[in-house]
Specification:
Blueprint: E1 8-11, H1 17-27, H2 34-42, E2 46-51, E3 57-66, E4 69-77, H3 86-100, E5 105-111, H4 115-124, E6 127-137, E7 143-152
Parallel strand pairs: 4-5
Antiparallel strand pairs: 1-2, 2-3, 3-4, 5-7, 6-7
Length: 158
């Protein structure tokens, strides 16, 4: 039912919001809200989607420029398409976007409990540069730390 070679990237717009929300709400315990995504779209953040040959959204990322660095705001692969290499394709595209626009690095935060994502980021070349205490909500009374990671896009090769 398709392969990595049958995929392409496209700039996401507000017209893609429902497809993005469907993935976000399925894969995250604390998903971004419709308002978060609308703020990103209207704020001019860079949003890219990975699609199959039928045009179905397989995954996406949202990047916010901050001086010479891009901040990865959210990134997901649809549950049914995980563990097929799509996350790597998305990460490679982030690097290309950063290099084309002369950014030095990409930074992100990830929940300390999200071991799968941490592993993907580390294998790709992101390094831990710090922690944010109590950054993410767990429930009404508890919060969990974020690991802050960065990759220097000038030195990494794809």
């Amino acid at each position: 039912m398709g392969s990595i070679s049958d995929t392409s990237f496209s700039v996401l717009t507000v017209a893609d919001l429902e497809a993005v929300l469907q993935i976000e709400e399925d894969v995250y315990s604390h998903p971004w809200t419709r308002g978060n995504f609308l703020d990103s779209f209207y704020g001019g953040h860079q949003a890219q989607g990975l699609r199959n040959s039928r045009g179905d959204l397989l995954g996406y990322f949202f990047l916010m420029p901050i001086v010479d660095e891009l901040h990865l705001l959210t990134f997901a692969v649809a549950r049914e398409h995980q563990a097929k290499g799509y996350a790597k394709l998305l990460l490679e595209e982030m690097i290309r976007v950063a290099r084309r626009q002369a950014f030095v690095s990409i930074m992100l935060e990830v929940r300390v409990s999200n071991l799968r994502a941490i592993s993907v980021y580390e294998k790709f070349g992101f390094c831990e540069i710090g922690r944010r205490k109590g950054y993410y909500p767990v429930d009404i009374a508890n919060r969990e730390d974020a690991i802050v990671m960065r990759i220097n896009v000038e030195q990494e090769s794809l």
